[in-house]
Amino acid sequence: MQIPDRRRAVWREPPMWLGAWALVLTWVLLSLCYGMDMTGHDPRDSFTLMALAWRRGMLSLGQDYPWLELAIFNGDWYVSFPSVPALVMLPLTMVFGGDTPNTLMTGLYLLGSYFAAYALARRWRDQAHSAFMALFMTMGCSLLDFSLFGGVWNQAQLLSFFLTTCFALGITSDAPCAWAAGLTCLALSVGCRPFQAVYVPFGLAYLYHNIRPKRQDAAHTLLAMLPHVVLPGLVALALGWYNWARFGNPLEFGHNYLPEFTRDPEKPQLAFKYMWPNLLNQFRLPQIVDRHIEFPRFEGWAFWLVDPMYTSAFVAGLIALFRRRWDRWDTLLTLSFCAEIFLLLMHKTMGGWHFGARYLCDLIPMLMLFELRNTDGAPVWETGIGILGIAVNIAGSFAFHLMEFGVWS
């Protein structure tokens, strides 16, 4: 598909700022309704503890924090999550100590995702529809509710969401420096949510595509790719070294040493036996019990309803096939989606207490790219699905928390 001029001054466009204010006001109002401290510290934050340990020159935490998911290795306690979100907490600990404003940070990650999504959409859409697509991506998925909390899980997934959106924005740019920046964002997103590595083949293939027209020879093209992959490669090496320094394995970030896995070897972190139950859970619907709605609290539910960009991207894919516009990038993205869903379904859990189907939100930034490439303008069906998704996530979040806080009990 022909892509319009990518070098617009998008930051001057009023629809982008109107959409941003809509997102901020929604986030603030939901926080106020739930009595959240928007600038406070969520104690379920391993990353602040990790940053404080770094400042003491330590790789381990040195003590147990029973309310957190900590890895136990060689008689010491370690954060059992990839370390990139702690890099953000590190400078904040120098100002706030252990009381970092982590809840505010998750909201800012969501807002940053909106801006990156708007800039990405402007390559295919006009201003108003770009703002709508950015709101669809951020407010029309389970991460809207998830961004209201600053726990370790929330930080990791929201920062990965933002970085993956920046990857999609950078790798599809006309500017060579943006290609390296996009790949670096992808490498950092893997340091938040490791399964984001499934997009590395797409990123490298797209980089090759960006450079090849100027250097027809394949060998010279590969050589010209090297400057763009140096920084992402260094990020990957640093993440691997940190894992090795803690656990003696560059691919081990600590989850396998959680007590829930070490106590019962019959229930490993990843296994084929989890796939079918996990898949069935993604199609569950809320139930009406004693005239009250009850939402599933664990493992996800009705992904096509709470994360409806899956639905709209599926329709866009069907249209591309019907119109014979499907190309190699659609194939590579689809293979990446299948690989990530496969890996997520192999996981022992699809997420603890939360609204919606948050694990499947990891795919949404790239689903948006897929959809933008395969739709013309802003089709009515896409607008309808987007409005429904935003409404479901705002109203559903409100109802979910009313139920949890006992208002309807």
Largest sheet: 2 strands, antiparallel
Level of helix content?
Answer: 55-70%
Number of helices: 17
Strands in their spatial order, largest beta sheet: 1-2
Distance between the termini: 53 Å
Spans of at least 5 consecutive residues with low confidence: 1-5
Oligomer: single chain
Q: How would you describe the shape?
A: globular
Order of helices and strands: HHEEHHHHHHHHHHEEHHHHH
The count of β-strands is 4
* Beta fraction: under 5%
In short:
The protein is mainly alpha-helical and 409 residues long. Helices cover 58% and strands 3% of the residues.
Features:
two-stranded antiparallel ribbon; single chain; mainly alpha; 409 residues; disordered N terminus; globular; 4 strands
